[in-house]
Amino acid sequence: MYIGIGAIVLFIFLISIRILRPNTAGVVVLLGKPKRVIREGFNMIIPIFEGVKRQKLALNNLAIKVDGITQDNVKTGVDINVIYRVKNDDQSIKDSLFKNGNVVQTIKSMIEEQLRASIFEFKHDEIFGKRTEMGDEIKHTLSEKLGEFGMELDSVQVVDIQLDQKVIEAMNNVVASQKNKTAAITEAEGSKQSQILTAEGEKEVKKLIGEGMALQREAIAKGFKDSIGQIKEVDQSLTGKEILDFLLNSSRIETLEKVGQSNAKVIYVNENLEGKKASMIKNG
Question: Residue 283: pLDDT band by 50, 70, 90 thresholds?
Fold first, then answer.
């Protein structure tokens, strides 16, 4: 008899035990009415009369895809990632279990409704720059609503935005065309600048050559003048014409010697020096 009673007591004790895992809470329900909240670890309930409804306290990740139409009538798909959790206080845990029978469906419905309205506010080429704005709007709306169900929103992420493939191809063509246009303009500007620099360089070279030739002529004239003065100092009886003939002949002989040392096969000698001699005598 005692063994039977002991077995019954042991059985009742065992079915009274409730062990909850980490990040899990439970609401003890007495005859269908929530009474108290139990936490992770070892717990006891009144068997038969009480039951336990469990609730995860860890973060929940919900992926949602919403299709909508933009302001310029382009079909657009938006992938949303919602991260939320149950607040870690007794009342919130009770609310999360008994105020809404399907929180996931509620979140999906709210996001779909708001996101479709948000997509319609923008044109298809604007929507990619509105990720943060759309995410913030959804987060604001969800935060208030989830709070009523004992939950809190951690983050809302706009993961991806997809446009119709034909629209994407058209956008890529426009971008490629703009890049080609920019490259052509850049190349034309570069060519123009190169031509300007080349022209300026040629101008500078010609200027330097002209200055060099002028200095060379000036040096030759000065050399002749100095030579004439030196010869007159040696022999004052010589006339200017005789001195100039001597200098020109000396210069011509020196030039012919240098030409003879080169590989030139044809030599042109201008013998019409009378006019030049007369001019130099007059100026000398």
Answer: very low
